[in-house]
Amino acid sequence: MEKDAPPKVATLTVARDTGEFNFAGGGARFDGPVTTTGLSADKQTSRNLRGKNVAVKAGQTTANITFAVEEVDEDYAVFIEQNWIGNRAIVKKEAKGFTVQFEKPAPDGAKLDWMIVR
Length: 118
Prior knowledge:
With 118 residues, this protein is mainly β. The chain has strands spanning 11-14, 21-24, 50-55, 62-66, 77-82, 88-94, 97-102, 111-117.
């Protein structure tokens, strides 16, 4: 890089509805395969990536998450974070989405974030 040259800027974004990656800002080099959707460590590519700040109604003890694009099957891992203290579990996984069950009812302003990996 030249001494007085401005720094180069690149961005990597993911479409919320499709999980598709978008890289802008110059060239890229990859040592291995690249897929355009979600995160996957097996032969089946993921069609979804995440949801953030998903509202959960006050008093609810479950949340049903429906994917924007159906997965091929239910063979994926789900990671959940919520903005209130309490345990939770994924009690149902399907190609169309999953269900989270909460130990404590959701308070006012409850939200959760989720991510899947195949």
